[in-house]
Amino acid sequence: MSAHTPHPKMRGGRKTAVGNVGRPPVSWALPGILFFAVFAIVPLAIAVYLSFCNWDGLNSPTSAGLDNWTRLFKDPEFRQAAWLSLLLTTISWVFQTPVALLLGVWAAGRQRSRAVLSAVFFVPLLLSTTAIAMLFHALLDPNFGVIKEIGPWFGIDPNVMGSSTGALLTVAFVGGWQFMPFHTLIYQGGTRQIPQVLYQAAEMDGAGMFRQFFHITLPQLRNTITTSSVLMIVGSLTYFDTVLIMTKGGPGTDTTVLPYLMYRTGFQTYDLGYAAAIATALVVVATALSLVLVRFSGFGNMRSTREGM
Predict the structure, then answer these.
(1) H/E run at residue 210
(2) Cα–Cα dist 75/78, whole Å
(3) pTM of the model
(4) Is 129 helix (H, G, I), strand (E, B) or coil?
(5) pLDDT digits (tens, 9 = 90+) for 222-243
(6) Given the DSSP bridges, would you call strands 14-17 and 53-54 parallel, antiparallel or unpaired?
């Protein structure tokens, strides 16, 4: 072995050259695995178990077999809540994705006012969902809220929360107003990872700003869009506190989405076994939609956008 050849070292049972980083030991992942198991896997397993039981929250659970699941698939209220959850998720995605993507691309630039405006725009992300829901509930009060004064100027009925369409769109807007900055941060980070040499080459070929956006930025953000969409779908399917504070599932049952139906079934009628079945079904739906999105977007075959640079 020559004097300039690095001597191999044994790290984690593998030979690695000096200066190369070896694979970290599995023990490093144990805290995260334990945390996930205690706060995700164990509660999910308990919910699945309770979905096959009758339980009022006070007495011991008793076996119910498949009664809760049979009732679930025959329950028209569950079907309506599932449809409303999917509709709310679709509206939220269509509303949030284009705006968050454009804001993220803009925030990744070097404009003079970018830092100040970005800081102001990200403020809603720091507030609690409960506080935001209470704020908009007060603003949209048809008797005392701001909507009573400015609504007629824009042709908006002050009692916007009194209609099924208005209430659902309001819930989607409030959720988007709060969480859009989070997705903007994701797109901002993704945009900053795009190699600048691509834009330099495009400028040399005479490509303008719009052609660069549609032919460079969007294709390079494909995996970022998938990541944001999965998080957005899961978040939209689990809207609860906004619905509870702003509409209480109304008017009627027009905003009774699956999480609110689960809450009402479990903590108002004390049918916690059936509520557990609704919760389990919600997990299955959210997981299935996420897997379908990942499968058909090609996210599983993701490769580095900087490969070969």
Answers:
(1) helix 209-212
(2) 5
(3) 0.84
(4) helix
(5) 999 999 999 999 999 988 999 9
(6) unpaired
